[in-house]
Amino acid sequence: MNDILQGLISAGWLIITFDPDLIEIVLRSLQVTVGAVVVSSVIGLPLGAWLAVNRFRFRRFVIALMNALMGLPPVVVGLIVYLFLSRSGPLGVLNLLFTPSAMVIAQTIIITPLIASIAHQAIRELWAEYHDLLISVSTSHRQRICTLLWDGRRALLTASLAGFGRAIGEVGAILIVGGNIDHVTRVLTTAIALETSKGNFSLALALGFVLIALAILINATVHSLSQTERSGRW
Q: Which of UniProt's keywords are assigned here (predicted)?
């Protein structure tokens, strides 16, 4: 109990004093996570919509595979990305290992199936509702997908937020590909793991509380901007 109380006090002090190391870690965490969410959304949202609209032979298998990949172990993703980006790997010439870019790649692989799966569920319901209308006006597949993506933008925002929540708390994969290098690839989750291993529980808890507060703040801000709970609307 004392550790939790001390962690709260330490977190408050770090925030109030605008601790430079904390600010740097928070900004890097946001840089990596937001970058991964943007890339994953660009890939996952249209993919989910495309799977909802199109019918093809192995569609059920692709959907099942996508849903299965939602549970992909992060450490395995980190290991695979590490092998690809290492000096002896096929992408070693890019020198991306132990950089924020490598962390973005790992997080993108982890959260893209999640975003695509949620998007597919949302767009499938809209497609069932607008199917006859969109076909009757002779829209192309691309126009149908764009229309459904726009009309379901609030539900799709939830998909991206789910990806953000998964990515911001990720530690296994980014620890492997990022290396937790101070002032280079250290983010909130890897800093928490480091401080815990050193027995510095107060600082680890402080960083943990900052991580939770950051996730709540980002989600509340996006929720407010999306106006999903406007007055007079259930």
A: Membrane, Transmembrane, Transmembrane helix
Q: Hunting for tokens 């990305």 — which residue is that?
A: 81
CB neighbour list of residue 156: distance below 8 Å, 6 or more residues apart: 41, 45, 119, 122, 123, 149
pLDDT digit string, tens, across residues 140-157: 778 888 888 888 888 888
CATH code: domain of residue 151: 1.10.3720.10
Indicate if the alpha-carbon torsion angle 70, 72, 78, 82 is positive or negative. negative
Owning domain of residue 64: 2-225
DSSP 8-state code for residue 199: T
What's the predicted TM-score (pTM) here? 0.86
User: Phi and psi for 8 in degrees, rounded to 5?
Assistant: -65, -45
- The total number of residues shown for the chain amounts to 234
